[in-house]
Specification:
The complex is a heterodimer of chains A (about 110) and B (about 120). By secondary structure, chain A is an all-beta fold. Chain A has no helices and nine strands. Chain A starts with a strand and ends with a strand. With about 120 residues, chain B is an all-beta fold. Classes of the chains: A mainly beta (about 110), B mainly beta (about 120).
Chain lengths: ~110, ~120
């Protein structure tokens, strides 16, 4: 089973700063079936990035994803007040199970 | 508007049963694999189950195998999660999510979630 480990657990930033979130897999993920989601309190998750680097519909270009193999990164180039949330990575290569990382909380410094 | 609406959650005693429903609108659901993801209070996301567009292929997370069943009725644009022998650790918000159509498609549409509480 694929295990995803996200770091850091919490990231404290000021608006306008750059956020770098990491997601590491315990085995190589073929074909980049890696997604990133944003979740705010009391809301359902929202897809940000799929295929490791492709932005989902309507996602601002300050969000970018990269990586391959076992190491993946989500970058928020200049964090806005509405970006403070919890971020999860997920692998979804067939067949399931499709695991999530434990999440990174991005909080206001 | 593309939307998923879950229903069927509630309070149940350990060992009890519930059936969750997820009704899709704004798209033809039989073209998409559908999923259930849960989130225990204060915890992260956990994938629970997936069903292919035709309903032919189903998958379950290990801790729910033998207790949960996923199914779908494409004539009603609805996916179900039948949950039996519920345990306290099954307490969570259960989300329905659509897997995108393309090969690289991830969980692109989510419902608002339905709360399941297992407690005596």
């Amino acid at each position: 089973e694929v295990v995803l480990t996200q770091s850091p657990g919490t990231l404290s930033l000021s608006p306008g700063e750059r956020a770098t979130l990491s997601c590491r897999a315990n085995q190589r993920l073929t074909s980049g079936y890696l997604a990133w989601y944003q979740q705010k309190p009391g809301q359902a998750p929202r897809l940000l990035i799929y295929g490791a680097s492709r932005r989902a519909t309507g996602i601002p270009d300050r969000f970018s994803g990269s990586g391959s193999g076992t190491d993946f990164t989500l970058i928020i180039s200049s964090i806005e007040p509405e970006d403070f949330a919890v971020y999860y990575c997920q692998h979804y290569n067939n067949p399931p199970p499709w695991t999530f990382g434990q999440g990174t909380k991005v909080e206001i410094k | 508007e593309v939307e998923l609406v879950e229903s069927g959650g509630g309070l149940v005693q350990p060992g009890g049963s519930l059936r969750l429903s997820c009704t899709a609108s704004g798209f033809t659901s039989n073209s998409y694999a559908m999923n259930w993801v849960r989130q225990a209070p204060g915890k992260g996301l956990e994938w629970v189950s997936t069903i292919s567009g035709t309903g032919f292929n189903t998958y379950l997370e290990d801790s729910v195998k033998g207790r949960f069943t996923i199914s779908r009725d494409n004539s009603k644009n609805t996916v179900y999660l039948e949950m039996n022998d519920l345990r306290v650790q099954d307490t969570a918000v259960y989300y329905c999510a659509r897997k995108g159509y393309s090969p690289l498609g991830a969980f692109d549409i989510w419902g608002q979630g339905t709360m399941v509480t297992v407690s005596s």
